[in-house]
């Protein structure tokens, strides 16, 4: 090899050695083998070489071209290999690491209580009915035998809305009874239905929220008695609070939509808030529920013949029962969306609502 060719070879090798990435490598390649590269220039000059030297010079240039092509390609393979190694090291995954805990929401205690009520009444054969937050005067009051001048109908207790339907004012329902009215109008007895949902009253203080939740229940058949009402309510309360011996007391009361009507109390300890404490340790009674035999006029209003059918109904406040069950002292945080309160009182979405079976 002539001097100029060995110089080209050694300089190219030196430059390749210092090319630390593929960009620098490509610059070296172009400077040697490219259109204006050093080797390309030498090949172009071959024509000017005297004829007697041309053959030997040509062969030497071609050998050099093969050599340089080989070292350039080898350097490229080395750089690509190094780049891949670096990437593999940077992206290394430790498959033995434990998974990060997946953030999970929680079920609001109101929703959980409703799920539990549905589970307990569902096991007794109740279906779940739905009404509408916006109702007519008739579905909220008229059908329920609540007289026109009843205090509950007053503006300061009920949210009336602009407009009217079916000849009566629109309002936000003050209890969830509309679901049962709808059911009685739509289907023949026997009926066993519960109606959990939102209700509204123009009342706002430490123990009242303008929006709250209620759960009502209705059973209608040919020979339903007060005994069925008592058995159903006692079983529900004992299952809901998980206390097989929970004392339950029925006390005469009045509602326009039931006759007779009874309020229902459970035994508790006023001092400690402990439930089921009635009797030996000086317990007290706490009202938790209203109930009664459905008024014949309510049945007739809904197309159910009171000479053939009779039944019972009850209603309770979901917030109140939730507070009692879990010892929650204040109503207001139920609707404040404080994430710490929600985490504390919320329950896992993966745990089903407990049925408290076997408690009775
Ligand atoms: C209470 C009392 C009660 C009812 C609700 C009802 C529904 C129909 C017919 C007859 Cl469709 N009655 N519901 C009956 C008695 C009491 O609620 O203190 N609720 C919080």
Properties at a glance:
alpha+beta, 7-stranded mixed β-sheet, single chain, 360 residues, binds 2-{3-[(4-chloropyridin-2-yl)amino]phenoxy}-N-methylacetamide, 3-stranded antiparallel β-sheet, rod-shaped
Write up this protein.
The chain is of the alpha+beta class and 360 residues long. Helices cover 39% and strands 21% of the residues. It is built from 11 helices and 10 strands. The strands form 2 sheets. The protein has a 7-stranded mixed β-sheet with strand order 1-5-6-10-9-8-7, with helices on both faces. It has a 3-stranded antiparallel β-sheet with strand order 2-4-3. Helix 1 (3-18) packs parallel to helix 4. The longest helix is centred in the first third of the chain and has 40 residues, at 51-90. The radius of gyration is 43 Å and the shape is rod-shaped. The model has no long low-confidence stretch (mean pLDDT 92). Bound molecules: 2-{3-[(4-chloropyridin-2-yl)amino]phenoxy}-N-methylacetamide (2NL). 2-{3-[(4-chloropyridin-2-yl)amino]phenoxy}-N-methylacetamide binds at residues 177, 180-181, 214, 216, 218, 255, 257-258, 290-292, 294, 298, 313-317.
Structure summarized in a few sentences:
Helix content is 39%, strand content 21%. The chain has 360 residues and is α+β, with helices and mostly antiparallel strands.
């Amino acid at each position: 090899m002539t001097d100029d060719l060995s110089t080209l070879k050694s300089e190219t090798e030196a430059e390749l050695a210092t090319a630390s990435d593929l960009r620098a490598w490509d610059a070296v390649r172009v400077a040697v083998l490219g259109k204006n590269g050093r080797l390309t220039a030498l090949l172009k000059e071959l024509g000017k070489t005297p004829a007697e030297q041309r053959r030997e010079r040509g062969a030497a240039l071609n050998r050099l071209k093969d050599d340089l092509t080989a070292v350039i390609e080898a350097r490229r393979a080395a750089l690509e290999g190094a780049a891949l190694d670096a990437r593999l090291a940077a992206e290394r995954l430790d498959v033995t690491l434990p998974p990060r805990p997946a953030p999970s929401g929680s079920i609001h205690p109101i929703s959980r209580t409703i799920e539990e009520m549905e589970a307990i009444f569902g096991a007794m054969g109740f279906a779940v009915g739905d009404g509408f937050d916006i109702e007519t005067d008739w579905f909220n009051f008229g059908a329920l035998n609540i007289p026109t001048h009843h205090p509950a109908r007053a503006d300061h207790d009920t949210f009336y809305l602009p407009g009217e339907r079916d000849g009566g004012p629109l309002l936000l329902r003050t209890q969830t009874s509309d679901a049962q009215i709808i059911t009685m109008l739509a289907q023949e007895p026997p009926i066993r239905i519960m109606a959990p949902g939102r209700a509204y009253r123009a009342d706002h203080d430490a123990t009242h929220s303008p929006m709250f939740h209620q759960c009502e229940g209705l059973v209608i058949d040919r020979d339903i008695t007060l005994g069925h009402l008592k058995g159903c309510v006692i079983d529900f309360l004992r299952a809901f609070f998980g206390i097989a011996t929970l004392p339950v007391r029925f006390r005469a009361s009045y509602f326009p939509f039931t006759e007779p009507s009874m309020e229902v109390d459970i035994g508790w300890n006023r001092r400690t808030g402990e439930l089921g404490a009635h009797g030996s340790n000086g317990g007290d009674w706490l009202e938790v529920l209203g109930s009664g035999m459905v008024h014949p006029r309510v049945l007739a209003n809904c197309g159910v013949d009171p000479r053939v059918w009779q039944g019972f109904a009850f209603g309770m406040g979901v917030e109140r029962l939730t507070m009692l069950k879990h010892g929650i002292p204040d109503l207001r945080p139920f609707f404040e969306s404080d994430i710490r309160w929600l985490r504390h009182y919320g329950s896992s979405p993966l745990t089903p609502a407990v049925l408290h079976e076997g408690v009775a």
